[in-house]
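Please review the protein record below. Let me know how this chain folds according to its tokens.
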Amino acid sequence: MDAPDTSLYKSPQAYKVDMEYYDAAMKRIPVPYESVFVPTSFGKTHAIVMGRKGAPSVVLMHGLAANALSMRSMFPALAKDYRIYVPEAVGYSGKSATTRPPVEDYTKWLMEVLDAFKIDKTHMVGISLGAWLSMRIALDMPQRVRSLGLLSSAGFVPSSKISLIKTIFLVSTSTFPSNSRNNARRFLRLITSPKWQQDPEMVEVFYRLLRYYKSPNALPRTLRDEELKKINQPTLLLMGQYDQLFKAAPVVERARKLLPSLRTSEIVPDVGHLMNIEKPELVNSLILKFLKDN
């Protein structure tokens, strides 16, 4: 057996420890699922697949540096009525290949994943970078997308410079073991609502990302007016009241002005960037209502 590629991690031991934690977390997924690998020109892609076979498909897209497990708060709610596919982007912190292409090439990667699963047309639900990537697929291959669910979406406004500076500082100082868990808590405070009681498991997840993982530094660009005007699929947009990475009000304002098929746009109260983790029941109910209406 070939040795695993540990190049995305700060050491082979870091990779080993993180994968052990990942495998243990997978066992806690509360619904039946399959762990599947499919080939792409960027390397093999791991995906978690669940839900009723033959039901309408929903592709869930995680955010920057994350993996499929970051979307698991949605699994029980959506898997009842839909076939759910949760691919892990290559070059990120899951089990997919370590290839890290330019951000713009991730649309080609995702199209190859859809082809590998024989998904002709699907609902797309993404958070942050995953929302941006969902919009890009809707632009590049509109016939493949039924609807768009955009959470904490990148692509409408530039990310906050202050938040980026704070993030870079936390990532850089997390090399020192004494700082790592404290920095994980600080990072969570940066990207969540001040009212959210931090979950110990989420602290552990972000500790491992900061401590062991070589985070990507390429960010998605802001989409142009003419691009947003071409997105004709029914769209749901949810932004967090306390999102420090992409300010909610200007995102919603630009979406309402430019997206021709925007069905619902809301600023979700008392959440930050990680709304699916902070208020999973509310977010899931809004997504399900949108999917059933479209």
Observations:
- The two ends are 46 Å apart (CA to CA).
- Strands lie at 33-38, 45-51, 57-61, 83-87, 122-127, 145-151, 235-240, 262-268.
- The first helix runs from residue 12 to 26.
- Confidence is low (pLDDT under 50) at residues 172-176.
